[in-house]
Amino acid sequence: MSRLQTRFADLKEQNRAALVTFITAGDPAYDTSLAILKGLPKAGADVIELGMPFTDPMADGPAIQLANIRALDAKQNLAKTLQMVREFRVEDTTTPLVLMGYYNPIHNYGVERFIAEARESGVDGLIVVDLPPEHNNELCDPAQEAGLDFIRLTTPTTDDNRLPTVLNGSSGFVYYVSVAGVTGAGAATIEHVKEAVTRLRRHTDLPISIGFGIRTPDQAAAIARVAEGVVVGSALIDQIANAQSADQAVSGVLKLCAELSEGVRKARVS
Amino acid sequence: MSQTETQYRNGPDVRGMFGAFGGRYVAETLMPLILDLNREYEIAKQDPAFLKELAYFQRDYVGRPSPLYFAERLTEHCGGAKIYLKREELNHTGAHKINNCIGQILLARRMGKKRIIAETGAGMHGVATATVAARFGLECVIYMGTTDIERQQANVFRMKLLGATVIPVVAGTGTLKDAMNEALRDWVTNVDSTFYLIGTVAGPHPYPAMVRDFQAVIGKETREQMQAQEGRLPDSLVACIGGGSNAMGLFHPFLDDTSVRIIGVEAAGHGIETGKHAASLNGGVPGVLHGNRTFLLQDNDGQIIDAHSISAGLDYPGIGPEHAWLHDIGRVEYTSVTDDEALTAFHQCCRLEGIIPALETAHALAEVFKRAPTLPKDHLMVVNLSGRGDKDMQTVMHHMDLSKQEKH
Ligand SMILES: Cc1ncc(COP(=O)(O)O)c(C=O)c1O
User: Fold this and answer.
1) Which domains does chain B have, with CATH numbers?
2) What's the complex ipTM?
3) Which residue from A135, A159, A180 is facing B29, i.e. has the nearest CB?
4) Residues of the domain holding A9
5) In the structure, what pLDDT confidence band is assigned to residue B39 with cuts at 50, 70 and 90?
6) A60 is a catalytic site residue
7) Which residue among B191, B286, B289 places its CB closest to the CB of A180?
């Protein structure tokens, strides 16, 4: 079983949802970002999404755009992101880690080389925002053959006709983007999320994680009652943006992560 | 060669690929919209009612056909090839951009969309979009980088007069690429109401093919006009390249006529060797941005490098995928021209022909000044005069002041 499968199976047994946290690799700089990454599992993150910075993050709102700029200004690149994963894996061999980003830096790095190094460094899965299933042959297929999960985004515009196309070749979990929009924008109503999960259930047995617009422990708890995973990104990244020092960035992210985790852990108990 | 036998005009394939270029590299939120647009466009382009309406607006609103004008003084000055100008600057709003805007707005209306968004660099596409949106009573939002707003203020004012909202984009260098990112972000947010009216032959499929089809009226007319005036095909075609729409519009109907030499002119900015340029084919490598695989200016880490050109409309780090393919297979030759060369050509065109060209267009003219003198007098050369230069007064004045200061 892959790390993602094991983790979601364990959590199912415990009857709770996964807290999935997103940060951008190298934001605000390599060492601070690595310290945050290493601290996340202890602060309650069940699955980690690590953003690969790109100059033109077309599907991201201001918070993650700025995170990309900070990371790139600090000279983050794909090789360093893979190095971060290696350093993370020295201490943590169980928390699933998924790289998330845009295709061009991977295309430039070389798909084959990227897949091989991602495997070797301890990456479990990939989310590539601008690679729809129409381009599966480029990265999704070879990545899966090499044992990496390929996680797909599904959205409010992905209708029943299209869902099978999107889910075909999905593995690890399914990421439901609950609002049509960029990251960091408004949240969907819980009714919308419930409906969407019901609809997705008809098409897949994979765990479903919900993201976009989730910022507080209460919101996280509400989602944790209806889905297998709760993704939080921009709210964590705001902690980095607002920090006065590297230490504050680390403690700010980990504190919020712990609060979100508590929300998720208590969600189905009461 | 008959119209059905084609070596170069059958792209793209169903996946939107021209060879290894093109495609649909977009976020899932947009995929259904793009498929929907593709479906609607495929139906519309076969629908006689749609084509009739398009022809009507091209004639009575845009003012087509645009003349193919023998530039006698330019020809004399160069002392070689016989130079013709395809007068796209005489179109309503002053550039070729409206050819595409009329087509897309009719499609938007057909699809029941109420809100139009667009990106713009020089502001010509923004003005053309605001114009057709006003004509059809649709809400219009234009994204424009802050650098471009600064250097194209007249066009910003024109868009506002036409009732459009102009949203300044500060990200990156505040130029066309950044405006396009922001327009895409708007589109993923307003999927139901909004039609994204892309201004060049770039973006995800079907945009490169659709914009080309709407612009191909330029080349079709040129063929007929040249037949009527000279009784034969031209020997060469020259056009400037930002995203590549005016060039593709002129080139496409001639691609299978292998006797016709075709030359696209990229912006070399301060010179390709300086790194400050906008020549994606001459100074870039293949990658994926804004929905398609094409040649891009990027660093060794696959990060996009900001383009530089004196002309806002060429200031883009990518190029339409069909051009990337034509470059790859060698059917079209792509050269480049620096800011200074373009400025010189700009002044010469003003003085010799009494036509003030856009700075974008001046890049094509600079190439003509290089080539025409070396060619025989019976060589027929067509230059796409893609737009007029009224919008560029401020930039040109600024550069004339600078060169005066340097002389003192
Ligand atoms: C007059 C003129 N020519 C050319 C261009 C470049 O665009 P394209 O390469 O799509 O024709 C522009 C863009 O703004 C323009 O305004």
Assistant:
1) 17-59+97-206 (3.40.50.1100), 65-94+216-406 (3.40.50.1100)
2) 0.96
3) A180
4) 3-266
5) very high
6) yes
7) B191
